[in-house]
Amino acid sequence: MQASSYSVEDYHSLPDLPGVYKYFNAENELIYVGKAKSLKKRVASYFVKTLGINYKTKRMVKEIRKIEITIVDTEFDALLLENNLIKKIQPKYNIMLKDDKTYPYLLLTNEPFPRLFPTRRMITGRGTYFGPFASVKGMNNVLELIRSIFTIRTCRLDLSPPKIKEKKYKVCLEYHIGNCLGPCEGLQVESDYMKEIEQAKHILKGNLGVPKIHFKKKMQEAAESLAFERAHYFKNKLELLEKYQAKSMVANPAIHDLDVFGIESDEKSAYVNFLKIKNGAVILTKTVELKKKLDETDGELLLTAIIRLRDQFNSESLEIIANIPLEEEFEGLNFAVPKIGDKKKLVELSLKNAKYYKKEKLLASGEVQDKKNRVLRQLQSDLSLKELPMHIECFDNSNIQGTNPVASMVSFINGKPANKEYRHFHIKTVTGPNDFASMKEIVGRRYHRILEDAKPLPNLIVVDGGKGQLSSAVEALKELGIYGQVPIIGIAKRLEEIYFPEDNYPLHIDKKSESLRLIQKIRDEAHRFAITFHRQVRSKNAFNTKLTDIEGIGENTANKLLKHFRSFKKIQEADINALAEVVGKDKAEKVYLAVRGDGEKGVG
């Protein structure tokens, strides 16, 4: 396609045809690229129209010194050409997707016995690339599924026929644990290997239906041949596929291939979410921000996002749905704004993601002094709390080796420790190391006291532990009649999972999230406080035992001495007069002789 140049004064001479126009400044720098159904009318609108033109557009028009156009066959061709030019040159007045990530792909190599592995570098000739994936987690889920179903090798050996024939290799651990069938030693023929590769390709393309039919057929054939062990083998493969698909199923499986977009905007930016649907499952989700340059409408911004995201993620879907209509119609794009049914629900889901992304961006751009409230708002969002968690209380048990069971409660107000509100608990009603019963006791005691004193409940209760500890705490709240009045969660240490009452599946907050770090900080503080108290109790009990072993000295006397002198060592160092001031002359002499053993007597 040949580009033609025009001076600014000759804009009225442009043809009345579809195409792409480019504006250059005095330094011959490309500053804007646009598409048009009619180049003549569109370009003229910049120079003739004055009313309603915003300041940014007026500033751009003042910079224009040269116009170049490229005529194309259709407006849709103009749209694609415009997108390619913007992506390549990035003119300063064009909308940009704010996204500096390099996305991961899965590469299926074009060597004998192909391998499948992640990469961020696309090199022509290495093989077939699948993706890009919007997240490493999503890519790893697909890779893990394929490796659990198919026996695809992970080694880097050259498995050309001559090398295998020469017996250069020996099978590795992957063969012995059943993850590989040993093609390196010629134990698997390449034709059988490639059958598995073909099935894996369907999964990589999002077509889970084909491998499901394949494994179902194999399972039935094995069962009919009375090969029940082999039938069970294929049944396990089928269940893995169905489990994976169930995790992503959000719509009617009859929705085969669909692109869903949701847009939410403000004065400065638009936030667009893209959901890729295959066979009723979300196989890709991505949200981007578009900074407004010339007060573009939501329709213009949405169209820009549709073209660029579909191009970026190699989507060829013939159907697109969104929450707002496009301002222009394009041949080849079957576009709709659904009003009812599953497609409308998908658009609502996409819009929900766009709104959440916008909220995250606005929270992240807050000023430094608002950091604590930003974290609390993030926590409120992550946990779907009705109120900002300004007051959080966290409980933890401590009974090392089953001795001296104690517990602690820490209080955080405005995201900061409120040390004066911390509480220690001696476990009174539980015999032996029983974390669940202990948790029920301390939570019950704490909020029974709160209700008695008519003090306000916290905005969030955190329990250190998983489902068991959480259920015990919930029982205590139910017995007090306040369950449901205050949100309560449990945090399990091993995977840092968040548990909600009566919910079988935990919530996984991003490990880098400030809200998760706040919960961890509160949990760790409760643990520290409980451990410190436990050590004090053990130490006190040890000293009490030493003192109560003295004939004539009981627990009350021992406690008086420890409370006054603070440590056993100071009791040993005290003279008999100091001891007598606390417990009297007779008991002082007994303690003095027992802890000193030097026979000195007499009270001065």
Automatic annotation (TrEMBL):
InterPro entries: GIY-YIG_endonuc, GIY-YIG_endonuc_sf, GIY-YIG_UvrC_Cho, RuvA_2-like, UVR_dom_sf, UvrABC_protein_C, UvrC, UvrC_RNase_H_dom. NCBIfam families: uvrC (TIGR00194). Its main location: cytoplasm. One of its GO terms (biological process) is nucleotide-excision repair. The keyword DNA damage applies. CDD domains: GIY-YIG_UvrC_Cho (cd10434). GO terms for cellular component: cytoplasm; excinuclease repair complex. PANTHER family: UVRABC SYSTEM PROTEIN C, UVRC/OXIDOREDUCTASE. SUPFAM superfamilies: C-terminal UvrC-binding domain of UvrB, GIY-YIG endonuclease, RuvA domain 2-like. Coiled coil: none annotated. It is found in: Cytoplasm. It holds the Pfam family UvrC_RNaseH_dom. HAMAP family: UvrC. The UvrABC repair system catalyzes the recognition and processing of DNA lesions. UvrC both incises the 5' and 3' sides of the lesion. The N-terminal half is responsible for the 3' incision and the C-terminal half is responsible for the 5' incision. This is UvrABC system protein C. GO terms for molecular function: DNA binding; excinuclease ABC activity. Belongs to the UvrC family. Residues 333-477 form the UvrC family homology region profile domain. Interacts with UvrB in an incision complex. Keywords: Cytoplasm, DNA damage, DNA excision, DNA repair, Excision nuclease, SOS response. Residues 16-95 form the GIY-YIG domain.
